[in-house]
Amino acid sequence: MSLSTGSGDFNDKSFNQLPKDLQSTFYPETPNKVFWLSFISLGTYSLLWFYRHWRHFKRRSVECKRLNLENSLKYEEDIRIIPFWSAWFCHFYIVGTARRIRERLKSLGSSEWQTGPWWAFVLFSIHYPLSKYESTESIRLNIAVDLLWIIAIAIHSWQITRLQIKANHSIILSQEMESIKKARYTKWDIVCLVFGLIVFPLFVFGLIFPLD
After folding, report:
1. Using CA atoms in the order 128, 124, 200, 193, what is the torsion angle rounded to 10 degrees?
2. CA distances from residue 7 to 3, 11, 18, 47, 165 in whole angstroms, order as listed
3. Which of 114, 169, 199, 208 has its CA 20 to 30 A from that of 2?
4. DSSP of 79-119, one letter per residue?
5. Closest C-alpha to 50, from 192, 151, 200, 194
6. What is the pLDDT of residue 1?
């Protein structure tokens, strides 16, 4: 079955001129890896996730301009993106990321284009107030807050995971890639994992048992 994707149709063979890692509109990644690294690292991996996506947008824009190709995402300012700041202000950039994925899915004629940019913004930041909680002498209260905090971190991690699922869907639907490759762990992924394995239990038990 052929897909009509409008002016952003990736079936234009000219996009084969792009480097292989830039042929997809979005940065491809396995959702399970995204969720668990974000969850275990207390959301630290989210910074890396945003950095990679917005760096991908910039690199792709630079290459499309160099090769005089029409970018499937028409954002003229992408060439000026500074990925570090996109990651640093990720709680704002999640709105832009969700909108880009939504626009791409719409252009591909997908019925699953909803990404909820503002819901993503709210739910991505849901754990911040709980992170300010200080342990009390009530162990029961501390455990209750601890459980709420763990749930909030899971909700936070799910926001970028569901966006990655949608991004992957657009990549497959537009035939930019035949499938999403199995998870590969870079040194920065491992840093996030080791950080989480050390800090996560310390943070959890630190909330339950007061220092005094």
Report:
1. -140
2. 12, 10, 18, 32, 23
3. 114
4. GG--HHHHHHTHHHHHHHHHHHHHHHHHHTT-S-----HHH
5. 192
6. 33
Could you tell me the two tokens for 45?
């991996």
Tens-digit pLDDT profile for residues 67-83: 888 776 677 789 999 99
Residue (of 29, 13, 9) closest to 21 by Cα position:
29
Backbone angles phi, psi at 115, to 5 degrees: -125, -15
CB 18 within 8 A of CB 122: no
Helix axes of 44-66 and 187-208: crossing angle, nearest 10 degrees: 150
Q: What is the reported pLDDT for 5? A: 39
Distance (Å, whole) CA 210 – CA 197 = 21
- Tokens of residue 187, six digits: 């040194």
